[in-house]
């Protein structure tokens, strides 16, 4: 049986009628929550990319989302882009904060994580980092998360059918990207639905040999 991988779109528009395998990715600066209120599965990023993380905004974000916790896949713990050691140091505090708001906590893997064990008490792995680094080490980290019994694995920056298939091949549970921002919601949803249907387990995004 082909592993089912959910795609999380970044939109505040209602997406009724879309496949149940299409969820929503939100963040602290996202205003519209209509798809979440309609019952879509969702996850949240933290806005750490490009140094935009702001603690009061993030905490307010967690509070406003708490009534929708039942359909939350994960909330990504704040991280330091391209710095695994600093991200690991941040995780214990933010895991506690996220779980105190009734959300599963995702640990974000950044460049250099291959030199450190993944935290045993994370709920999800969120594979971020640079493209070249992910291609070299992504499969091994995904395998490590599965071995630790993580609830799920998420991969960011997935904006093509090929990358969607590659994620499904490695047993990734969800992925997201900014594709809709380039082509619009209507066309983007049509394309993403095709990607989800076509995900048939072909490898390629990560080197499968790295997991052996």
Regions with pLDDT < 50 over 5+ consecutive residues?
Answer: 200-212
Morphology = globular
Give the tally of structural domains: 1
CATH topology: TIM Barrel
N-to-C series of helices and strands:
EEHEHEHEEHEHEHH
Radius of gyration: 16 Å
CATH architecture: Alpha-Beta Barrel
CATH class: Alpha Beta
Provide structural commentary.
There is one protein chain. This protein is an alpha/beta fold. The chain has one domain: Phosphoenolpyruvate-binding domains (TIM Barrel, Alpha-Beta Barrel), CATH 3.20.20. 36% of the residues lie in helices and 16% in strands. It has helices at residues 34-37, 55-65, 84-100, 131-147, 161-169, 179-183, 185-198, and strands at residues 6-9, 22-26, 42-44, 72-76, 105-109, 124-127, 152-155, 174-176. Strands 1-2-3-4-5-6-7-8 form an eight-stranded parallel barrel. The longest helix has 17 residues, at 84-100. The protein is globular and about 40 Å long. Mean pLDDT is 90; it is low at 200-212.
How is this fold's topology laid out?
Blueprint: E1 6-9, E2 22-26, H1 34-37, E3 42-44, H2 55-65, E4 72-76, H3 84-100, E5 105-109, E6 124-127, H4 131-147, E7 152-155, H5 161-169, E8 174-176, H6 179-183, H7 185-198
């Amino acid at each position: 049986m082909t592993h089912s991988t959910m795609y999380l779109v970044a939109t505040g528009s209602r997406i009724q009628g879309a496949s149940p395998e299409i969820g929503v990715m939100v963040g602290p600066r996202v205003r519209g929550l209509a798809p979440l209120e309609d019952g879509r599965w969702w996850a949240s990023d933290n806005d750490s990319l490009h140094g935009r993380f702001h603690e009061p905004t993030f905490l307010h974000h967690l509070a406003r989302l708490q009534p929708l916790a039942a359909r939350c896949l994960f909330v990504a713990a704040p991280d330091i882009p391209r710095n695994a050691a600093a991200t690991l140091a941040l995780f214990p505090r933010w895991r506690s904060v996220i779980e105190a708001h009734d959300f599963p906590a995702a640990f974000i893997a950044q460049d250099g994580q291959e030199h450190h064990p993944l935290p045993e008490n994370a709920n999800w792995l969120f594979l971020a980092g640079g493209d070249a680094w992910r291609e070299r080490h992504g499969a091994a980290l995904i395998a490590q998360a599965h071995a630790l019994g993580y609830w799920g694995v998420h991969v960011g920056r997935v904006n093509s059918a090929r990358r969607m298939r590659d994620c499904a091949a490695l047993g990734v549970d969800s992925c997201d990207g900014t594709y809709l921002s380039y082509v619009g919601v209507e066309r983007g949803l049509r394309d993403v639905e095709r990607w989800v249907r076509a995900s048939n387990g072909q490898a390629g995004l990560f080197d499968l040999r790295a997991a052996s």
